[in-house]
Amino acid sequence: MRMEGTDKGRSVEQVDGNLVLECAMQAGAILLANGAEISRVEETVTRMCSHYGVESEKAFVLSNGLFMTAGSEKEAFFARVQHIPVRGARLDRVTAVNQLSRQIEEGCYSIEEVRLKLDEIERMPEKSAGMKILASGVGSGCFCLMFGGSPLDCAGAFIAGLILYIYVWKIYEPHLSKIIGNIGGGALVSALCILLHQLQLGETMDQMIIGAIMPLVPGIAFTNGVRDIADGDYIAGSVRLLDALLVFVCIAAGVGLVITAYHKLTGGMVL
User: Fold this and answer.
1) How far apart are CA 29 and CA 61, in angstroms?
2) How far is the C-alpha of 156 from the C-alpha of 168, rounded, in Å?
3) Per-residue pLDDT tens over the stretch 205-234
4) Measuring CA to CA, which residue among 216, 210, 214, 208 is closest to residue 154?
5) Which has the higher per-residue pLDDT, 75 or 205?
6) Is residue 103 within 8 Å of residue 109, measured between CB atoms?
7) Closest by Cα among 46, 63, 51 to 220
8) CB burial class (10 A; 0-12, 13-18, 19+) of residue 122?
């Protein structure tokens, strides 16, 4: 299928419409899988297709699925459905696709070059495990300080945050479901903060726990859910909010189980 469009100054007949749609589908899948909101995915797909002359494109995006069709009297028919697993956010990939879409509109790349760029974005390496563990610890300490913890509380939250991400890396992500993993994470953080508090590595245990559990909180999913609903994408927004709410409840359940057990064992001397 050859489409009319502007492709780096070349004639419109040289643009492969099927390749355009496949690249748009790939770009949308990368955005959706890595934490972009629905409106951003739809806008990026539409802009790419429009730039390369595919005017009949229609995209329907859900929180875990991408549906795309095209076809008219002048254009061959195209239909694709792709399931997008719900996973953690990779905002560096989202940023890279956004930048690529702007460069496409400026006429910087042919459609063949776009395919290569998208493949490069999909292969972008993750941060090292050590960097993630350190970031978890630093984030926990900073959140503890922001919520009113003392410097000693921040030190305790930092240690708990480090150990929490080791748990996420070695146990939760490879072996556990979302429900069990988050219950276990909340319980682990609470137990660690109790232990650190008993060792005098913290003054206010509740501030330590609040700071240390923040790496588990799905802030991007919750924010995107609210934005999707505000944009009128009620189905996708509701699914994302429900997913975030499930994580909140699981974390709270893990914390509550450990705090209750400690309360029973110590006769009420929790704090």
Assistant:
1) 10
2) 18
3) 889 999 999 999 988 889 888 988 988 888
4) 208
5) 205
6) yes
7) 63
8) middle
